[in-house]
Amino acid sequence: MFGVPSSRVIKLALAAAALVSQAAFAVPVTFSGALTQSDPVFNRPFTATSLSTVGTAVAYDVYGFHVNAAGTYSAEATGFLSSTADTFLALYQGSFNRAAPLTNLLTYDDDSGTGALSLLSATLQAGTQYYLVFTSYTNGMYGEYNGRFNTVSGSGQVTLDGAAAVVPEPASLALTGVGLAGLMALRRRRKA
Ligand SMILES: [Ca+2]
Fold first, then answer.
1. Greatest distance between any 2 Cα atoms in the chain
2. C-beta neighbour count of 42 within 10 angstroms
3. Contact criterion met (CB below 8 Å) for 155 and 73
4. What are phi and psi of 97, to 5 degrees?
5. What share of residues in the chain are helix, strand, coil (percent, to 5)?
6. How far apart are the first and last CA of the chain?
């Protein structure tokens, strides 16, 4: 006979329930960085078939990511320089080549977010590599920014691939503070 204290059984059950709930609900993934004068530049798209004539050499950052289940996902710019700053997002499937900005372009957005911030959504598949390009509307716009991926439909999860400036959105503000403090400490160390 195995005499297992009932309190331990309850604890195990609660731990298992916590694991299940973590797996069942997608967690938004935030990212942050800065567009700088030393960033590479490209001629951003204007439409799916034409290039911008005002964003001809915009600084950009690229975020490689994948999802673990098919579904609808969104990516948005949540801040850039100031409330009037004008972001642009482009989503690529398979590969991104700054010399061919219309190749593999899945979708893009200029101003669907707050103010002139960008918000795009797309149906994505598991097992496919995607690249989110964060850039600005016109040339010469530099500054720090924040962004976020969300699962719009389905229970899939976005995972960023090897991006250094990635902070999974935590469940509490306390955790956000710790994550941002850690990120800033890391950034300070790198600059030193
Ligand atoms: Ca914009």
1. 78
2. 22
3. no
4. -125, 115
5. 20, 40, 40
6. 62
pLDDT attached to residue 22: 47
Q: What are phi and psi of 15, to 5 degrees?
A: -65, -40
Torsion, Cα of 53, 58, 61, 62 (10° steps): 30
Positive/negative CA dihedral, 32, 147, 115, 174: negative
Q: Determine the distance separating the centroid of ligand 1 and the alpha carbon of 136, expressed in angstroms.
A: 7
Distance (Å) from CA 1 to ligand 1 centroid: 68
Q: Which of these, 131, 161, 165, lies nearest to 147 by C-alpha position? A: 165
Contact 118, 87 (CB under 8 A): yes
**116 CB-near residues (< 8 Å, 6+ apart):** 84, 85, 86, 87, 110, 137
Q: How many Cβ atoms sit within 10 Å of the Cβ of residue 12? A: 11
In the predicted model, residues of the chain with pLDDT beneath 70 are 1-24, 82-84, 163-192
Structure pTM?
Answer: 0.73
**pLDDT value of residue 81:** 84
Cα(185) to ligand 1 centroid in Å equals 30
DSSP string, 140-178: T--EEEEEEEEEEESS--EEE-S-SSEEE--SSHHHHHH
Q: Which two tokens stand for residue 176?
A: 């956000």
Ligand 1 centroid distance, CA of 110 (Å): 4
Residue 164 has a pLDDT of 44
